[in-house]
């Protein structure tokens, strides 16, 4: 899955430049590799000012989550280039390994299973106690990366989004109705007018949801209408793509698209003819989480660095900072879902794509890791109907 493999825009201040050293080289250093635009620049200044101890802070953005996962792999298995007679030791560079990295929840199971990350322990922080249960459950895993209520905590969710329906107002005005739920994708008027994500979990999942089942259904054979529903949906779809699904919508080649909220929100601001809705029966959720690389350095300053990590994670979970993340990053902090909505800024209350109604959110689901046998069944079905 390459949700957020997209470039998230330019113009953001280089965070490693914003937060240069605020102390001497003898101070503990916190190195963070994060997804570009996933943290407001002003938040980093606020964190620096909140610290009671001197510390060196190095926050460096990457444009794609896939690049961050690749870095975890590289740090775990350093390149062996230069072995043998061609090796030149004196020019070999030791990689600088971050203490915290942004990772999408989709990659969490793989990162755990491959031992790319190590558990964290944020349960004593005030923020963890405010973190709603679905996000706590998301990061409790066993050593194979599967959900486990008694498992260790492998990440700290700091923002989330959803899969939404986005459509052209002009085309639907002529039809006399607007889409509100997944079942609308099967209406005859939309034949060959839809673009969807090229992702089996998303497309099979929304079809399961339309049939009254979970995105995380294990036994597909027990959903007798699934193949027929997918076959009918195929006739409605003009384009499968995970990175260009909005383009045909913008030029009117398709009338409706299924996409990720982080991609859709900027379009809603720039084109008033485009509208979006979170399906009323619930949708798929995703989360960005802070993880600790397994290869992170273990020095005599480990305790101080661990303290800085926990302070940063807890800082992101405080209500003021949670609001800033939600207002400025195209995604919502999980903390605000537990806050009184009437006390949220009006712009958040009015943004039902960024922050769906509580009833819709309760019906929505994270895409949990599947067993290998179940994952193969999904893939086989996808290849059959795709």
UniProtKB/TrEMBL annotation:
Residues 1-20 form the signal peptide. Its main location: periplasm. It is found in: Periplasm. Gene3D superfamilies: Periplasmic binding protein-like II. It holds the Pfam family SBP_bac_6. It comes from the Bacteria. Keywords: Periplasm, Signal, Transport. PROSITE patterns: PROKAR_LIPOPROTEIN. This is Extracellular solute-binding protein.
């Amino acid at each position: 899955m390459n949700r957020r493999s997209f470039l998230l825009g330019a113009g953001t201040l280089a965070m490693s430049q914003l937060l240069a050293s605020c102390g001497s080289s003898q101070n503990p250093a916190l190195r963070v590799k994060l997804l570009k635009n996933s943290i407001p620049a002003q938040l980093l200044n606020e964190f620096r000012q909140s610290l009671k101890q001197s510390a060196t802070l190095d926050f460096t953005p990457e444009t794609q989550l896939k690049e961050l996962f690749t870095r975890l792999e590289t740090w775990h298995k350093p390149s062996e280039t230069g072995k043998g007679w061609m090796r030149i030791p004196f020019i070999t560079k030791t990689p600088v390994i971050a203490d915290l990295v942004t990772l999408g929840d989709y990659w969490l199971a793989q990162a755990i299973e491959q031992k790319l990350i190590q558990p964290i322990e944020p349960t004593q922080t005030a923020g963890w106690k405010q973190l709603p249960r679905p996000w706590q459950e998301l990061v409790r895993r066993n050593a194979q990366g599967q959900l486990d209520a008694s498992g260790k905590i492998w990440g700290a969710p700091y923002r989330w989004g959803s899969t939404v329906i986005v459509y052209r107002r002009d085309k639907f005005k002529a039809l006399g109705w607007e889409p509100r739920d997944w079942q609308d994708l099967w209406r005859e008027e939309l034949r060959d007018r839809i673009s969807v994500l090229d992702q089996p979990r998303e497309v099979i999942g929304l079809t399961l949801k339309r049939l009254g089942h979970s995105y995380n259904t294990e036994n597909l054979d027990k959903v007798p209408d699934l193949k027929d529903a997918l076959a009918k949906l195929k006739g409605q779809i003009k384009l499968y793509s995970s990175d260009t699904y909005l383009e045909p919508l913008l030029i009117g080649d398709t009338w409706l698209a299924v996409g990720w909220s982080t991609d859709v929100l900027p379009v809603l601001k720039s084109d008033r003819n485009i509208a979006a809705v979170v399906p009323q029966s619930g949708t798929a959720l995703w989360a960005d989480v802070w993880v600790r690389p397994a290869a992170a350095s273990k020095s005599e300053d480990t305790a101080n660095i661990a303290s800085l990590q926990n302070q940063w994670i807890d800082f992101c979970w405080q209500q003021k900072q949670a609001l800033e993340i939600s207002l400025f990053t195209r995604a919502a902090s999980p903390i605000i879902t537990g806050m009184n909505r009437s006390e949220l800024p009006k712009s958040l209350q009015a943004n039902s794509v960024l922050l769906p109604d509580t009833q819709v959110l309760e019906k929505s689901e994270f895409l949990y890791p599947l067993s290998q046998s179940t994952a193969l069944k999904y893939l086989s079905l996808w290849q059959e109907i795709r």
